[in-house]
Amino acid sequence: MLSKLKAPRGAATKRTRVGRGEGSGLGKTSGKGHKGQKARTGGSTKLGYEGGQTPLHRRLPKRGFTNEFKARYNIVNIERLSAFNKGDIVDADALVAKGIVKNIKDSIKILGDGEIKVPLTIKAHKFTVAARKKIEAAGGKAEVV
User: Where are the domains of the chain?
Assistant: First the structure.
């Protein structure tokens, strides 16, 4: 009965009212101790602050480099292309439609892992030597976009 539902014992507790007299146990300093930065209003420090000392993230040496212009490939193994029918044209849109590639990055690269038995016309940005041989052996074409 919905009218008799209530929270389990100990789940609903009243909020602690601090600064309400010495007898409450949380009077005077309201549980903040005496003086200091954390006792003040708005007295919390931001993450990584070390009291004016040079923080760790500035003391450690910086290393490495991220090249934002590097080529990113969606890699597709040749065995995944068996989902297509004979004579299909396999390009980026077809791969997304079949769910083989989720989202197109910069380019598509076909790798030669697995076997292909169906002749397909595959349009991609790069092919490995093994992939190209297997596609052509099955009677298909590997076209570089």
Answer: 17-60, 73-144
